[in-house]
Amino acid sequence: MFKPVPSRWLTERLPQARQARRRLLQLGSGAALLLALRPSQAAATALLSVRVWPAGDYTRVTLESSQPLDYKSFSVKDPERLVLDINGVDLGGPLQQLAGKVNDGDPYIKLLRAGNNKPGTVRLVFELKVPVKPQVFTLAPVGEYGNRLVVDLYPENPADPLLALLQEKQRDEAAVQQTKPDTRPNEPTRADDPPPLKGRVVTVMIDPGHGGEDPGAIGSRGTQEKRVTLAIGRRLRQLINEQPNMRAALTRDDDFFVPLAERVHKARRIDADLFISIHADAFLTPSARGSSVFALSDTSATSTAAKWLAKKENAADLIGGVSMNVDDPYLKRTLFDLTQTATINDSLKLGKAVLGEIGGINRLHKGSVEQAGFAVLKAPDIPSILVETAFISNPEEEAKLTDEDYQDKLARAIVNGIRRYFVKNPPTARTKMAKL
């Protein structure tokens, strides 16, 4: 049965109830105020820069910001488009420059449009030339970079790597036929000493280190490692393609970033016989100098310096930017089977042959092949070496690295080392492991 509430209870409780109601109203209006302010507060997230890296393999667009960006993306067909909505940024500033950074020669982006989709949200629309498989991800601050939102546009139907390799070989051979004789015919070149390769065609994958978002080491004159390695890599490819029964490919033929594991994948896709990664060393002091050659270690590094260098080179994925959703069987590899052990032994033989030739044009930092856990050398069935061409942190060697004549001599020395390796280790038909 309902009992009436005593009037004294109402008298005591009513002021408390009114006060609680006022507090609820204040909280509600405060929450509403927060909601109203949220877009303008998010707009305070500053975009520091925008960058576009077009290449045949893929195009990368990077938005660097002071705080992590809140975004969502989706694809639209007919015509092909990628839509990227970013919350809490201003349409002005660096975003105004983004459309102008897309050039007509971009393989994948036809046009890039930006506008306010709704208050507090900027919409970027990528009008595409061909169907793509986009990867959109964020990167935490590292090195000189702040927070990054990365858009990688990969072709839905990538080019056949073996066909591209054959076409490159044919172009280089045609260029040799049209080129005038060398103006230095009497200059002795040790690259002509070994006999030409016989037997089946040998394929060499050349890996110019770093690229794109990852400049690598930078010399005192501002020389970027990624540009030096690409120049030497291109020259090395040309020289190899001029050799009978030899052909070469590059993991990158332009200024773009290639993840470490992808460099290994590329070598295995073309059934490479050798993998040679080109770098330009750097150290804490400018006095360090000399060239070095490294192979993979199945135990520990052969020196503290080798271990330090491997750790630095393996950090390339953090700097260049890799989606952590991509499975990476090589970087995770910890157990070395008999195949890997045999490959390392062959890598040491190759490294010794190349090191001996490089010693004829530059001082050696160490007279033997060193070993460490370089991620880029982890192909289980391809002899792989990493050549540190010189110390870019040494002003004298930095000048050498930018000199075309030195680059040519260095490339010729590497070719000569490869040929000497095959003289003692003739190429035979190999049973390839399953490609991952």
TrEMBL record:
GO terms for cellular component: outer membrane-bounded periplasmic space. Keywords: Cell wall biogenesis/degradation, Hydrolase, Periplasm, Signal. Residues 181-195 have a biased composition (Basic and acidic residues). One of its GO terms (biological process) is cell wall organization. Its main location: periplasm. The keyword Transmembrane does not apply. Residues 171-198 are annotated as: Disordered. It catalyses: Hydrolyzes the link between N-acetylmuramoyl residues and L-amino acid residues in certain cell-wall glycopeptides. It is an enzyme of class 3 (hydrolase). It comes from the Bacteria. GO terms for molecular function: N-acetylmuramoyl-L-alanine amidase activity. InterPro entries: AMIN_dom, MurNAc-LAA_cat, N-acetylmuramoyl_amidase_3, TAT_signal. It is found in: Periplasm. Residues 264-419 form the MurNAc-LAA domain. Its EC number is 3.5.1.28. Belongs to the N-acetylmuramoyl-L-alanine amidase 3 family. This is N-acetylmuramoyl-L-alanine amidase AmiC. The lineage of its organism: Bacteria, Pseudomonadati, Pseudomonadota, Betaproteobacteria, Neisseriales.
